[in-house]
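User: Predict the structure for this protein chain, please.
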Amino acid sequence: MIYGERIRFRGVERSDVSLFYEWLNDPQVLDGLSIYLPLSMQDEEKWFEGATQRPQAEKPLAIEIRDGDGWRLVGDCAFFDFDWTSRCAEFGIVIGDKSVWDQGYGTEAVRLLLRHGFETLNLNRIFLRVFDDNQRAIRAYQKAGFTHEGTLRQAVYKNGQYHDLHVMSVLRSEWDHISQQDSP
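Assistant: Here is the predicted structure, written as structure tokens:
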């Protein structure tokens, strides 16, 4: 387990697949993701089987929040497309449980994943791509320390329109500075 203040990461389990299926077929959740067609339970099970075969650093992590005396699954995140020579990876995250949106869990999860990427995996650069209309995610990324690197103009077609795709990143040196400021 990887613990934050109010959240933790754990490995994704087969029992999580039905909740992922539900989230990834919710139009509001999908709005910020690159998935644009409905997924079947078989699609999600196939994704899970593929995820179990990935190298340890690339396996998705379940995001859980404290819920009474236990923990409740609210999303997942992962690093992918590693470039081990340049010590770089892209990351993705989804908070599928809409009941916890706008409560800071996404920002905390992003910071925890950055800590894991820089301090455990020894990455030098972590980046992401985000749709121009996903302001909730952009705010969370900025709060976590991401810098806007550039814009891929009209790079994505969704919901009958072309959208810009922003590229954002955090470098290890920037993370070191951020984490020093957060220390008591």
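The first helix runs from residue 17 to 23.
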